[in-house]
User: Fold Metallophosphoesterase family protein from Actinomadura violacea.
Amino acid sequence: MSSPERPPISRRGVLTAAGAGATLLALDTAPARAAAPSPLLLHSPGRAGAPSVSGLHLQFGSDASSEMTVSWQTPLPVRNPRVMVGTLTGGLGRTYGADTRAYRDPVTREEVRSHHARIRGLRPDTEYLYLAVHDGATPEAGTFRTAPRGRRPLTFTSFGDQATPQVNKAMPTEQITLWTQDNYGSPFAGDTTTAVERAAPLFHLMNGDLCYAQLSGNPTRVWRDWFINTSRSARNRPWMPAAGNHENEKGNGPIGFRAFQTYFEVPGNGGDDEFQGLWYAFTAGSVRVIVLQNDDVALQDGGATYISGYSAGAQRRWLEDELRRARADRGIDWIVVCMHQVVISTADSNGADLGVRRAWLPLFDQYGVDLVVCGHEHHYERSHPVRGHQGNSTMTPIPVSTDPHRADTGRGTVHLVIGGGGMGFTSN
Assistant:
């Protein structure tokens, strides 16, 4: 199908390497500006026996120019979790109370509490300072910048499949400490966090398979270690996550995503409670970012349980409505989709998924999706713009251009496989 007519606007996308496996994407409609400062802060223990503020991280609301959520975790109940917000020049101003959600891990029976302070009414393209704290704890600080509004330049980074930066695996339980776990990973998972912070993007898209807790005998420890690593960056800019197959933990909620849904407070999708956090969208500048959960349509069985078809079509209906409204919005120039499993890959390990092709590609073509970032395959590759598919059993996408110097997303969708976040590599 042909894409609907777009507003007459000049657009330019630049893809450059950010180092250590990260990919930096700049969507420019105006001259670039210097990046915001990005301090890395030391962690302080709690006082008076209260657990410390751990795993501090940020998430945008649906309007990234005015909404931010500050989140952290504790292993025990706490009193009065809250966030104080101000500017670098004006000092701390308003205080926002945090809501608390909890889950009990089905493997360890450990209960984890996650605290989320939703901040609304922020000014666009503005730098803020905040402190997260609960009674008896030492405050933890961070900064963030809200998104610009309208056609302004912005930069984001993206990768999937990170894991934790342990230096050994399969150690005896009594020898396991921070960074030495019984799941898979590599020391490079720490390097990629550093690479994101060095690039200082407005936000980072995490393309699924965050920490691989599902492979561990102690999932809560793996989540905790992943947040310790990523909080070095995620306290200063939102890391917006897609749930991959390894976020599916058997017995953890109705469809296995309870841990993921507890840790993150992302924009709502208007669906049932059990689906909240699994697909969502937000607007930053003239970019509409749509995040999907592909196990709902994938044929591959890569998680703890096989859950293909769990939403009974609810996610696809939501996606089509989102795409229709985004393409009709003359203030949106770019539609970017973030998801985990891939529709195009040259790898001989997981490979492209026919279920994802069947479910999503016709919608991407119909509504002119510009860019898809995904993970799953632990390497990097970029497609030519594609539109439509061959009439074969695998629905092979058709390139509309093979120009290596110019990728015109007005003619077709570019797919980026960015699964080199630290979990090791697959062969091509």
In short: The chain is about 15% helix and 30% strand. The two ends are 31 Å apart (CA to CA). The first helix runs from residue 188 to 199.
